[in-house]
Amino acid sequence: MTTLLQQLANGIALGATIGLIALGYTMVYGIIQLINFAHGEVFMVGAFGGLAVHRWVLPESFRENWYVSLPLMLLGGMAVAVAIALIMERFAYRPLRNAPRLAPLITALGVSIVLQEAIRIWFPNADSAQPFPKAFVDSQITIIGLGPDGPEGDVSIRASQLLLVVVSIILSVLLQSYINRSKMGRAMRATAQDPDTARLMGVNPDRVIVLTFVLGAALAGVAGVLYGVDITNVDNAIGFQNGIFAFTAAVLGGIGSLRGAVIGAFIIGLIKTLGGQYMWGGTQYDYVWIFVVLILVLVFRPQGLFGEAERVRA
Amino acid sequence: MTILNRFSGSGALGRHLKPAHAKPLTAAGGVLAVVAALLPWVTFLLGDGAYPAKATLQFFDAPFAVEGYRLHVLLLGLAALVVTFVAKTPGRGRVLRALGWGVFAISLISAVFITGRGGGLGAITAADGVTAFGSIVGVVAGLLIVLGAKAGHLDDIPEWSTDLPRWAAYLALVVAFVGVLYLVASMLTAGGTGGASNPYAGPIFLAFLGMAGGLLGALNGLGVVRWISALSEKHRAFSIVVLLVCALALPLTSAGNEYWMTVATTIGVYAATAIGLNIVVGLAGLLDLGYVAFMGIGAFVAANLSGAAAAKVGIDLPFPLAALLAAAIAGVIGAIVGSPTLRVRGDYLAIVTLAFGEIFTKSAQNNIGGLTGGSNAIPGIPNVEVAGTAFNEPITVLGADLPGGVLYYFMIVLVVGAIMAVFANLKNSRIGRAWIAIREDEDAARAMGIKTGKAKILAFLAGATLAGLAGAIFAHKLSTSSYESFKFLESVTLLAAVILGGMGTIPGAVLGASLLFVLPEKLREFDEYRLLVFGLALILIMRFRPQGLMPDRVRRAELAGETAGGKSIEEEEELVVEHEHEAPGPKGGKA
Amino acid sequence: MSITDNMAAAPAPPVLQAQGVTMVFGGLTALNNVSLSLGKGEIVGLIGPNGAGKTTFFNCLTGLYLPSRGRVLLDGSQLAADPSKVTIAGVARTFQNIRLFPNMTVLENVMVGRHSRMRQDPISTLLRLPAFHRGERAARERSRELLEFVGLTRAEHEVARNLPYGDQRRLEIARALATDPKVLLLDEPTAGMNPQETEATRQLIFAIRDTGVSVVVIEHDIKFIFGLCDKVSVLVQGELLVEGTPEVVRADPRVVEAYLGKPPEEVEADVRAASTEHDTRGEA
């Protein structure tokens, strides 16, 4: 029982991270039907951006107070992530807007490799795990002795996990309302539905696409920094794995659906922790269960949990 | 080549060029190229030692003793001059353009390398009161020739008659294939083995590639390449025999030592796998991002049936039987993996295959069922043996001493040959047409009575079988089988090989696999940047030459917006404009 | 015209029969109880305003949709809801917006149509045994016959995407005929054609009918339909409005009304304009 609760808590925290990344996947796919493989790397680059701010930008005195350092690191992470996203949209994807579908997908793979390698080569020692500052309240909430297991039945939740979940939910809600209410949000929805008509209505598709990349990257940047704060170390491989989890979450929720992406992410987080706990093979195979779910969803319900069947591209 | 082409073509300079500038530009470029070859290229001794081809000033003895890449620049420059002044050269524009890019590439590679490896700018300009402008002059010469070619008219690639007497056709084919053999051997050995002891292997190899590219481009512009391929099409059986003999003769060339045999065998294994992937991606249009898993399955099956001490299944089968079993099991699993493809299309399919690939890697890493050895791999896979001779031993055939590993090389040549035949025979058959139809328009294919589900599963089965076979050879050659060899990045590399070479074609897959697996071998000291460059290359290829280096005549049209005749869209548009001046054109009739 | 009359005078047993086909999407009834019967060697036209359910009906006939109610019979046995099986059973089709295999040659396109009518086992394919060559030769010869039949012999080795528009339509018909159909379904075969091409298509359809193949044609061009078909069915809002010989249909006031309440000539002009516009958009 306690183990279950503990894994539930861990799964939800993981889901919060994945959810922030998945929003970027789902938005970009919704607008230009591109599986932006490199989006996971944007998350990774965001984490390193935050780390860089902490290492080389913040004065010693700032580092001690998390309420000073964390916001600055978040800003740094977002800025780096957004800059990378802008560059890759402009120079890698935009020229291929009307190319056969294979081309942007392979380009995305290329971008992903380049970003991973660039960090490995040029960020000092990034090929092995880099300690990430605990730029948040370093405490954990312990719920004591919930089960029959007595004192061993403590369920502990790190403050940084709570922060991840709270931030993730707040940002998702903000994003949802931005897209539903604002003028740019309407333009985004119009472009997703029918780019040609949107263009006729005066929407500039380039601007919409850029905005989509920027929003997705900003969220991924936040996720990267908060992930680093929570896990307390990062390396250049965190992007690929979490990126695939996030993509799976987006597909599970119904690609194109924001709400679906977030809910999908929590489900994926839970599958990983609970699967690692209870399924055959333990944590060595937790990764595998996510892919099994991905395959099952794509095969049996390709529109996902919240997607509309007829909008799924044939 | 087209990559740079676009840069200069879209630049402001390109638009101001007029046909009248063509001749002076190419002539000047040709002369400069010759001059560049005769100049020294490096002012002082680099930290890694004298730069090859006696290009360093202090070893620069007599301007006429040119060798290595300087000789290549000289020859390309002379060729450009000849072509410039022989008015009737067929396909002149294209020939010049290729020669220009060749000169440019060779010079730029050396310039960048010399500056980058401790020389600084002084090394290629002037330092300590001495000058060595060779590489800079070469770069300028190359650009001038290219610009001149662009200023002039790019003629169509000429077509040569293939109605020759049989002996003449055979002679031409033998000459061509022996030429290819020589080129391959020189390319393999160009610069020698990469590594710390041989710091200049990388640039020398790349410069050689630049030369080979320029040469082949020029031959293509002359129509020779097309002529030879038409001839070989016509005399198919003869060509196959000659090609096979040439391939088997590689150990007799300068590449005939154990090291190059190993490299060539590895290339062969990946080429075989790439041809299999080409069935799935190139013919049936099913994007597979987990393909290397089938090679892995083949390797692990073979390892388990080899009698290796570390293998869980202790059965020791003769190699041919084990290889067939490996292929069959990989094929069956391929068919199973392929079955979800009945329901998903496009990007989703790519993701499903990626997921399968990841599941395979994870399971192999975790030593699933004890079958894969996990992170210890399965070491000690015995060599293939025939009549008491292990395949890694040197042998003597008819008095010729052949290096160790040559038997593996022979085996992979035969296997690649067989796989090529399988690919070609499938492509031009009922099922091949069905695959291509599915790639082109799945709904229309179904309306033609094609059971698309069955056809797709067959594509996966065929592709996975070939990969499994290649994997079995791979395991024995390496004598170990580790999950590390079959990760996502390998799948991407294989896919890149297929795309780089040209989708749907055999030479394309072989060429792509060769380049992608030789380059890291040559550029070992740049290992740090290998993947970075690979990723960049993927982006650039998709941007500038998505149809690959040797595209299918038809496929090229789809990916690059070229017409089947081989003209680029820009050229085609020019033609359309011309037509519209003459007459209302065929478009008028449609409305 | 005289040919048409002759055929109408000798009714054959039905080859293709749609019985009470009803198609419901969500809550929307796209087709309601539509029946159609096609005799051997008959040409039946299907007309109706946009959104009348013609394409939906076509999709029910070709196995793309499984009708919610009712059934489709070919020679008395029910067709499966699977396009490839329907084709194998003997119902071939063309597409409204041409769907050739653009990067295959003209001959290859037609040979794809032979797919279900030829056998090739893997062994003889891989080893190029005589059986393989026999099969290929037969398929190639049949395909060439069909290309000659539609008048595309000269373009045999061209890539399909490079063909002029009218030739692409004819290639699509040749490709459909390569499946040896009993029934050929043509979806707007003259969309975007000029009068000469339209007339050539009409002659081609007659020629196809004369080989014993029954034909169903969906078309906007009313004049074309009336000059071609033995029977015409008019679909309006998913229901069968009128069915009968061109004369009967032409005289029916409800048909005129269904077409925007205008006299036939004007309707025709409108429809023609609409289809041309549609076509140019498709090409752009």
From TrEMBL, chain A:
Source organism superkingdom: Bacteria
GO molecular function: L-isoleucine transmembrane transporter activity; L-leucine transmembrane transporter activity; L-phenylalanine transmembrane transporter activity; L-valine transmembrane transporter activity
Signal peptide positions (record): none
Transmembrane segments: 12-35, 70-93, 105-123, 159-179, 208-229, 244-271, 283-300
Transport recorded as keyword: yes
Chief location category: membrane
One annotated Gene Ontology cellular component of this protein: plasma membrane
One GO term (biological process): L-alanine transport
CDD domains (alphabetical): TM_PBP1_LivH_like
Record key words, sorted: Amino-acid transport, Cell inner membrane, Cell membrane, Membrane, Transmembrane, Transmembrane helix, Transport
One Pfam family named in its UniProt record: BPD_transp_2
Membrane topology reported for the UniProt record: Multi-pass membrane protein
Subcellular location(s) per record: Cell membrane
Family: Belongs to the binding-protein-dependent transport system permease family. LivHM subfamily.
UniProt-recorded name of the protein: High-affinity branched-chain amino acid transport system permease protein LivH
From TrEMBL, chain B:
Full protein name: Branched-chain amino acid transport system permease protein LivM
Record-level Gene Ontology MF annotations: branched-chain amino acid transmembrane transporter activity
Region (Disordered): 561-591
Annotated keywords: Cell membrane, Membrane, Transmembrane, Transmembrane helix
Membrane topology: Multi-pass membrane protein
Transmembrane regions: 25-47, 69-87, 99-116, 122-147, 167-188, 200-225, 237-253, 259-284, 291-311, 317-336, 348-365, 406-426, 457-475, 495-517, 529-546
GO annotations of cellular component type: plasma membrane
InterPro entries: ABC_transp_permease, LivM-like
Protein location: Cell membrane
Keyword Metal-binding: no
CDD domains: TM_PBP1_LivM_like
PANTHER family reported for this sequence: HIGH-AFFINITY BRANCHED-CHAIN AMINO ACID TRANSPORT PROTEIN BRAE (PTHR30482:SF10), HIGH-AFFINITY BRANCHED-CHAIN AMINO ACID TRANSPORT SYSTEM PERMEASE (PTHR30482)
The UniProt record lists the keyword Transmembrane helix: yes
Tree of life domain: Bacteria
UniProtKB/TrEMBL annotation, chain C:
Stored SUPFAM superfamilies: P-loop containing nucleoside triphosphate hydrolases (SSF52540)
Keyword Cell inner membrane in annotation: no
Keyword Transmembrane helix: no
Keywords on record: ATP-binding, Nucleotide-binding, Transport
MF GO annotations: ATP binding; ATP hydrolysis activity; L-isoleucine transmembrane transporter activity; L-phenylalanine transmembrane transporter activity; L-valine transmembrane transporter activity
Gene Ontology cellular-component terms listed: plasma membrane
Highest taxon in the source lineage: Bacteria
GO biological process: D-alanine transmembrane transport; L-alanine transport; L-isoleucine import across plasma membrane; L-valine import across plasma membrane
Location of the ABC transporter domain: 16-262
Protein name stated in the entry: Branched-chain amino acid transport ATP-binding protein LivG
